[in-house]
Amino acid sequence: MKVVILAGGFGTRISEESVLVPKPMLEIGGKPILWHIMKGYAHYGYNEFIVCAGYKQEYIKQWFADYYLNAGDVTFDFTGGRHSMKMEKSSVEPWKITIADTGLHTMTGGRIRRIREYVGDEPFMLTYGDAVCDVNIDALVDFHHSHRKTATLTSVIQNQSKGVLDISDVGAVRAFREKNAGDGVAINAGFMVLQPNIFDYLEGDETVFEQVALEVLAEKGELMSYRHNGFWQCMDSLREKQILEKYWESGKAPWKYWD
Question: What is the pTM of this model?
Fold first, then answer.
């Protein structure tokens, strides 16, 4: 199963940093948050990624182009008028990464629609390139297969200004609504599993995945929630970036469960 990561937005809420690099490439502990997300999926054996890039997409491509070279020892040989390079050893992960330029102003649904050719006619996972989580991916996928609906999202309880969910006792997402002051309710944390017919709900570049596709699926009873009671943290602001940095520096980052 492939993992699709939305990484094309402008990151305006953390513009102090994203003016230079796209938000998914902002570093936590010396590595982009995008890398942290990918490491989490790879821990469960998912090593094929499709990155929906847009804003400053060339930065993402260049980082991964350099990643192999920077992840190991290399010998440059200029003797005898030669110019050769040999990788002596590398600690790079066995990943296959497709970085797709999905447009500068394309909405989330449009970005997903544009990478259909890379996904093919099979279920796939989807998440956002600005949040880390310690969700059990195997359990999430098993839950998705168990109910046979079109989509599963991971929900967490948060007291913050995100769109919130109305969830039934059996996990069906019945509706979306905006947060009210003082809410302590479930929000969409990303980490989704989708059937290929999700593309039927994506009409063009202007489609907002959350406001169109997910709302329609909720109305049809085709959207389910996997409840996660552990750690989740997005990086929408400089303060939230600093929170993640402190976790990493402590040596006890909850989302780091790889060796």
Answer: 0.87
